[in-house]
Amino acid sequence: MKTQKTSYSILDLALVSQDHSLKQTYDNALHLAQQAEDFGYKRYWLAEHHNSPNIGSSATSILIGYVAQGTKTITIGSGGIMLPNHSPLIVAEQFGTLATLYPNRIDLGLGRAPGTDRETAEAIRSDFMEAAHAFPNMVGQIQQYFSEDNATSKVRATVAEGVTVPIYILGSSTVSAHLASKKGLPYAFASHFATTHLWDALDIYRNKFQPSSVLQKPYVITGVNIIIADTDQEAERLSTSLISMIVGLFTGKRQAVQPPTEMTEYYKEVLKNPQVHQMLKYSFIGSKDTVKPKIKAFMEQTKADELIAVTNIYDINDRIKSYQLFAEIMDELNTD
Question: Distance (Å, rounded) from C-alpha 12 to C-alpha 257?
Fold first, then answer.
């Protein structure tokens, strides 16, 4: 019997599928979170992205509130808020408000990237590069706004002071690992797409970790792509929507999530592309029997405290089914 169970969570992009309205997209996000609550997921995070026709979570904090209102127990949060896009004061006010409305259920994951292309990043904030370099200081500002000590400051986020909102550092390189370890904060690595620096980042975070008032030992969350269906063939068919998304990402021809098709030679050739192959290194696609040993091996290699799953599937029912099967796998592995 395992003494320490590995938690499992969802990272959602509020995918906008072809022929689906934004209202349908947001209702699907809520429905997924409600199902995840029943399946035993620890948290449901929404990611901030901009200028992407296939991603609906650009106004992240608003969507977090919508999902939190329609759920009861699951933790809802950001994976993440791209902090250089925002004022730390405004972020503290938004999440202080959310955590007051939904106590002990709101997470604040913070990232340093823009979550978009260069032109859009500049449209959001003309001094984005300077803000990105100031990321460590901005994280410190948010921590200060949430502290009760800030009550004596000239600039206050009065709706955040003393409110409990756990902060997570997100990363796709080693830079964030240094920051998370120095601040003694939990660390979530985007290994669902940024696979190259995973091992170095985890080593840095764990070896340099300094205990803090919020965390006594390292806490690691790793991202994985999950597409599970009743058969390997069906899972491969569903994965063609993800492959089409990646092609759009590399070619700049982004579009709404496309319906799946059969796994043709074209898709097989795309998967052989070195960049695509590297990006999808930690993707687990297949039936339960196929995926389970691969997830077990990944858990043993990373020794992650938590896996956060990204499931880019066109149809919400197929997406929910995949998350249900993933939850079953995690429960089985946790009791083996």
Answer: 14
